[in-house]
Amino acid sequence: MTLAEARWPEGGDGPPPPVPGFVHSTFAPLVVAVAERCLRRRYGSGPLPAGNRTAVVLVSASGDRASAAHVRATVAAGGRVGPLFFFQSVPNSVAGHVAARWGLDGPVVCLSPTGDPWAEGAAEADLLLYDGDAAQALLVLIEQAPDGTPGEATAVLLGEGTRQ
């Protein structure tokens, strides 16, 4: 059952706002913006009460393209890679950031799909719900545009009863 849904961009959105601790790329800001938009549509403001068992499932085939390109170029030029890039190079870091800000206390899972991103993400969320690991799951699908623009993201909050 879909409890809430959001997209970025919607209705004239520009770039997502920056997120402290994440640099250079729009990947983390895009994840945070769409996740918060979705959660606000269901809950208003956060954090959620303890024991909410809300999982985060982040799905991206390409990951943080901009950060990866920056690190590649810096290393190729013999430069020093900043320490924040080691932190943000793992998609779990932004998923954990969302979970911490909203008090989501379920599992955090990141997937790089080989097939349909929605189908693979929804299957993972469904498994977490079906097995009882989570009461609801925030599914975030994100792809950065290859041309350096922010890209697009969708967030869907799924509750128990999603099994087809």
Please provide a written account of the structure.
With 164 residues, the protein is an alpha/beta fold. It has a single domain, classed as Thiolase/Chalcone synthase (Peroxisomal Thiolase, Chain A, domain 1), CATH 3.40.47. The chain has five helices and five strands. It has helices at 27-43, 65-76, 83-88, 91-102, 117-130, and strands spanning 2-8, 54-59, 108-111, 136-143, 152-159. The protein has a five-stranded mixed sheet with strand order 1-5-4-2-3, sandwiched between helices. Strand 4 and strand 5 form a beta hairpin. The protein is globular and about 50 Å long. The model has no long low-confidence stretch (mean pLDDT 88). This is Beta-ketoacyl synthase-like N-terminal domain-containing protein. It holds the Pfam family Ketoacyl-synt_2.
Key words describing this protein structure:
single chain, 164 residues, alpha/beta, Peroxisomal Thiolase, Chain A, domain 1, 5-stranded mixed β-sheet, 5 helices, 20% strand, globular
